[in-house]
Structures are given as structure tokens and as C-alpha cells.
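Hey all, quick one. A colleague (J.T.) asked me to put the thymidine-5'-diphospho-beta-D-xylose job into the tracker so the inputs and the C-alpha cells live in one place instead of scattered across chat threads. No bug as far as I know, just bookkeeping. Sequence used:
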Amino acid sequence: MRRLLVTGGAGFIGANFVRYWAGKYPDDQIVVLDALTYAGNMANLQGLDEFAGFEFVHGDIADQKLVTSLLVDQKLDTIVHFAAESHVDRSIHEPDAFIRTNVNGTHNLLRVAREVWLNRDDAPPSHLFHHVSTDEVYGTLGPDDPAFTEKTPYAPNSPYAASKAASDHLVRSYHHTFGLRVTTSNCSNNYGPYQFPEKLIPLMIVNALTGKTLPVYGDGSNIRDWLYVEDHCRGIDLVISRGKAGETYNLGGNNEHANIDIVREICARTDTLFAERPELAVAFPDAPAATGKPTESLVSFVKDRLGHDWRYAIDATKSTNELGYLPTEDFDSGLGQTIDWMLSNEAWWRAVMDGSYRAWLERNYA
Ligand code: NAD
Ligand code: TDX
């Protein structure tokens, strides 16, 4: 039985991970620590309070006293660290929060883990600090470059990527210097349920339904390697269960697409869905598809993101060979499930986008 501290568990991937883990390991204890920033959402964890081992704690990973008391009092033996500022565009406009949470926050978790797990008599018999990171630490690829491996030198280009790279290095150093048992996974772009609609796929779906512009940065040729979020959760499980302390593992989707192709695919699927299901035109009257206009009419090529990385691609051979990792969801069905989820969860994304969730948060967590 494991006793997990899941940081950032009210965010997109963290919430999917908690649902995955509670379903697969119902006897484990899961304590979620989340500061509920704009990206954190209690609605993402709805239903989990029925799970006996689940507890939510509202707090900051940079709070040394709080993290110490959670590890000591609850005898937690595994940290799965998702909490981060995660949006590249925000890191370009306001980088400070990225350094504070991604660098200093991660360092606080590491020093508390070291103190509690390595220096105390009542430390649990085994421990693991799993750090969830990104492929963006490796920089950008040209069209013919081989995909990133775990040996690719780090070359982060945005303040977000640099802050994640710094946190990866700190995690590594706590293993090398102090012997803390750590693993790190570097993953490609995720998509799926509960993703905050500031990221490409959910933003385009919401804007297509509400008749807003679909802003494609630059010429839309930039390529990402897309992974359905549940496959990422499965990959993290494999690293936690079978990975070797001190090692890093790449997790990817073998699934490269140019942004413009993704946007066009979402447009085409929206048109088809509205043609097949007349109730959608009633529910979403502002969508062009509600009046038979092509959704693609909303596409607008806008000013490029500063320092925009052109291509990411993950080589996950090491994870496949050593852990048995393979993504199972193909992009066709994964994108379909994501659009269906957004159609069935209008209240969720409207609340997130119109600020009523913030008001709810202030009422309940002031
Ligand atoms: P997200 O922005 O949806 O969620 C982040 C969560 O962390 C939120 O719940 C937020 O409230 C919480 N948080 C932020 N600052 C905190 C703090 N100081 N203390 C406690 N909680 C705090 O992010 P996501 O997309 O779910 O990403 C999760 C992790 O996975 C991040 O570390 C990110 O770098 C990594 N990652 C994301 C992707 C992707 O495609 N989204 C891909 C690879 C890796
Ligand atoms: O409106 C948009 N228009 C657009 O063209 C948005 C939001 C994005 N884009 C482009 C920029 C990227 O080339 O789409 C691509 C994907 O953008 P994001 O969804 O912002 O993701 P990205 O910048 O690739 O970073 C993501 O993947 C790695 C996550 O946000 C990170 O947290 C993760 O580490």
C-alpha cells in the first residue's frame, strides 16, 4: 500500500491521475495538495470524496511547515509532483510565478522530503519523489531532427520551459547529492477531459461552440506530439512502479500533428456533429455550425508566440523497453472523446471561463 502526496491534483493532469490511481489502487491513501490557482478546480475532483483514502488540502507547495506536517502526520511515502504554472503564454507575460512555484516550490518539496524521509527516525521504510516534467526542456526540433531522447541536452526556450528544466535539475541533484529516491518523467503535449481552455485543443473546441475566433499562432505549421491524458497517467504509474531511482523517462504519443491540422480537424468534426445532432444548434446558437456555416470561418492567423518552439517529438523507446510503456489511445478516438466530454460538460467550462468559479472559490476557500 502506498501513501501518496499528489501536488497539483486539482489541475488537469493531476485530477486525471488521482481518478486513475483511486480506481486502480483503491486501498492506497491519496492526499491532494493544491493551491487552487486559476488552473486548479475542485470540480475536477468531484466524486472522489466517496473514496475512503482521499483527502484534499488547500495549500501551497512552497509552504515548508504545511508540507512537513503532511508528510510526517500522515506518514506519506510517495510524492507525485504535478503542481506547476503550466501555460507557456502566461510565462511570457508574467514569468515570476513560474520561478516561484516551479523552481522554489519544487525545491521546498525536495528539502522537506529529504528532511522527513532521510533524516528522521520515524521515516517510512521506503520512499519515492516522482517529478512530472515536460518535453519542452529539450528545446525545439527541425523537420528532420530525431525525436528527443533522455540523453538530448537541455535547451529550454520559454520561461516556462526554463523553470521546468531548473526543477528537473534540482530533482536530479537531490538524488545524486543526498540519495533521495527520485524519478522524473518528461512528457509531450496532453489533451483530454478537465484541460483548462487556455491550451490549444480545449480552447479551440470552446471557441468553435461559442462562435469566437480560433487564433492560430504564426502560420500554424508548428508541430506537437499529442498524448491522451490517461496514457500519461498510465506511464507515470509504470515509472512509479517499475522505474529506477535517479532515472528519467520520456513519455510520448508517437502522434505528431501541425497545429493548423488539429484546428481544421476540430472544425470539421464540429460541423459534422451539428449536422447530425440538431439539438446542438439550440444549445450553442452562436456557433457558426448552428446556422450551417463552416466552423473554419472562425480561423484567424494571429501574431506568433514569442520564441515559439517549432516542433516537439518524444522518443519513448527507453520507457517502452524498460517499463513496458505504450500509449493506447489513438488520436482519432481521443480527440472524439475530448470533444464529446466538452459537449457534455458545458457547465464546467463555462464556470471556468466566466469567472463564476473564482467567485465560488472565494466564497468557499476565503
Ligand atoms: P494545470 O495548470 O492544469 O494544473 C496545475 C495545478 O497546480 C493546478 O491545480 C494549480 O492550482 C496547482 N498549483 C499551481 N501552483 C501551485 C502551488 N504553488 N502550490 C500548490 N498547487 C499549485 O497543469 P497540467 O497541465 O495539469 O500540468 C501538470 C504538470 O504536468 C505540470 O508540472 C506540467 O509542467 C506537466 N506537464 C504538462 C503537460 C501538458 O500538456 N499539460 C505536458 C507535460 C508535462
Ligand atoms: O490559441 C492558441 N493558438 C495556437 O496556435 C494556443 C493556446 C496555442 N497555439 C499553439 C502554440 C503551440 O504551438 O498550439 C500549440 C500548443 O500550445 P499549448 O496548448 O499552449 O501547449 P504548448 O505551448 O505546446 O505547451 C504544452 O505542452 C507541454 C503545455 O501547455 C505544457 O504545460 C506542457 O509542458
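Adding what we noticed when we looked at it: Residues 96-118 form the longest helix (23 residues). The two ends are 35 Å apart (CA to CA).
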